[in-house]
């Protein structure tokens, strides 16, 4: 079957004009919810610029091999969660990004981004994972990520954690736990891994199928298991921390000391791990108990080996990823507060003949910083016949939540004026303003003024 005929067959499956639903686990973000997202994005941008982090935007589609190598063959993501496909035209194996650290590192290598020193970067955007959709777990979800490339010291690990902590604070979130661990360096982890395999082999009868399968491919991942039956055997397993040498331990001490100096409360969790060899030293999570099973808001750590895995020069790096649906859900849970959604003013246009003057005046008000919603005809062709009764226009003005109505009536226009009528705070008060220079009285309409 050719591409064209298979596409035609797909269309033929559905009656023409039938409804088409969004893909399962992929959500539309509609008003008024979209305002919450914009509020969040503004908070993020403001804080990132105060930390002097710069945005990076990489493609949503990458070569599949980037994630196989960069996310890791033995991870859940690569084993079963990726949306991968073959490019129909040239046969390339491509994947919708399930996370963005590999993409950022690829771009940094490709453009030699660290040639003149370290870089502090951030991104926000959609990620794709074929998981079972549930509260806090979607197939398209948004991640905010921060990545610091080219700096080896513990101070940037701490800076990143303080950044995440401050962001959650500025969003008004409370009771978020910070858990911290150190993964040391590769030889230390190899020694721990050997001890772990021996330990789990001794207790093989207590493991589930998944854990037995991982015993030799990626035993660290067993520590990550969500199976409650395995908790006792996992709790008693050898801990990575006791395999760290003095240099790694000293570094870990410094991280804790600096975090404490910044007033960030944290707890060391010796079972917090990452299953891949390119991770080293710091690893952390920000967790809430208020979102049920999907309580991890942010996860991150140092990945000093990743540049080499992706064909670059050895480059120290550290970063985190934060799930924005979960963050917004927690905002809703804890405070619900976001900025005002209503426009400052609603323009009432009794006759279509007033439109040229009204549109021009609104243009000037918006240029002066006022948010104005203009009344518009709803029925096709009705602009020529009329804009709807004054009564229905005032109803719409009320429903918009605006504090003022601007009335572009024939009387007003004849005098080169507009009536400004207060709708809230008791309402009723009104005055005429000149249309000669709307910027002169624009400030009076602004709720922030
Ligand atoms: P989890 O254990 O919850 O599956 P993860 O270890 O796969 O998380 P990371 O790859 O570290 O998650 O991603 C960072 C953050 O992105 C998570 O802490 C979470 O807040 C968010 N996240 C991950 N997967 C999803 C998803 N499918 N839907 C919504 N948010 C997600
Ligand atoms: Mg996951």
Question: What can you tell me about this protein's structure?
Answer:
This protein has 449 residues and is an alpha+beta fold. The chain has 2 domains: 256 residues, Bira Bifunctional Protein, Domain 2 (BirA Bifunctional Protein, domain 2); 101 residues, Rossmann fold (3-Layer(aba) Sandwich), CATH 3.40.50. The protein contains 16 helices and 16 strands. The protein has an 8-stranded mixed beta sheet, sandwiched between helices. Strand 15 and strand 16 form a beta hairpin. Helix 2 runs antiparallel to helix 6 and helix 6 packs parallel to helix 10. The termini are far apart. The model has no long low-confidence stretch (mean pLDDT 92). Adenosine-5'-triphosphate binds next to strand 6, strand 10, strand 11 and helix 12.
């Amino acid at each position: 079957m050719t591409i064209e005929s298979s596409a035609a067959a797909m269309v033929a499956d559905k009656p023409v004009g039938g409804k088409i639903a969004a893909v399962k686990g992929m959500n539309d973000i509609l008003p008024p919810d979209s305002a919450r997202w914009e509020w969040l994005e503004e908070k993020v941008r403001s804080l990132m610029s105060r930390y002097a982090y710069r945005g990076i935007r990489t493609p949503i589609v990458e070569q599949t091999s980037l994630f196989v190598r960069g996310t890791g063959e033995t991870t859940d993501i690569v084993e079963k969660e990726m949306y991968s496909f073959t490019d129909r035209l040239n046969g390339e194996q491509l994947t919708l990004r399930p996370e963005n650290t590999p993409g950022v590192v690829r771009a940094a290598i490709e453009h030699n981004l660290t040639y003149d020193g370290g870089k502090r970067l951030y991104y926000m955007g959609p990620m794709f994972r074929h998981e079972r959709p549930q509260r806090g777990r979607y197939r398209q979800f948004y991640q905010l990520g921060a990545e610091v490339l080219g700096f080896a010291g513990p101070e940037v690990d701490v800076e990143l954690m303080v950044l995440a902590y401050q962001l959650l604070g500025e969003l008004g979130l409370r009771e978020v736990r910070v858990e911290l661990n150190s993964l040391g360096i590769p030889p230390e982890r190899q020694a721990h891994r050997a001890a772990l395999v021996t330990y789990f082999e001794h207790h093989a009868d207590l493991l589930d199928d998944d854990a037995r399968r991982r015993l030799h491919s990626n035993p660290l991942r067993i520590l990550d298991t969500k199976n409650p039956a395995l908790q006792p055997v996992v709790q008693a397993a050898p801990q990575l921390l006791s395999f760290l040498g003095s240099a790694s331990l000293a570094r870990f001490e410094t991280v804790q000391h600096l975090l404490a100096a910044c007033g960030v409360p944290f707890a060391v969790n010796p079972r917090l791990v990452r299953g891949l060899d390119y991770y080293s030293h710091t690893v952390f999570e920000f967790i809430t108990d208020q979102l049920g099973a999907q309580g991890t808001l942010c996860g991150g750590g140092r990945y000093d080996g990743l540049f080499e895995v992706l064909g670059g020069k050895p480059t120290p790096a550290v970063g985190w990823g934060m799930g924005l649906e979960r963050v917004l859900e927690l905002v809703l849970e804890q405070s619900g507060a976001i900025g005002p959604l209503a426009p400052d003013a609603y323009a009432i246009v009794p006759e279509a003949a007033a439109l040229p003057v009204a549109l021009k005046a609104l243009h000037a008000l918006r240029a002066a910083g006022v948010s104005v919603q203009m009344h518009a005809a709803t029925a096709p062709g009705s602009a020529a016949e009329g804009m709807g009764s004054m009564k229905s226009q005032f109803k719409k003005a009320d429903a918009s939540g605006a504090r003022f109505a601007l009335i572009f009536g024939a009387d007003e226009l004849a005098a080169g004026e507009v009536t400004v009528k207060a709708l809230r705070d008791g309402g009723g008060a009104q005055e005429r303003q000149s249309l000669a220079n709307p910027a002169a009285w624009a400030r009076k309409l602004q709720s922030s003024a």
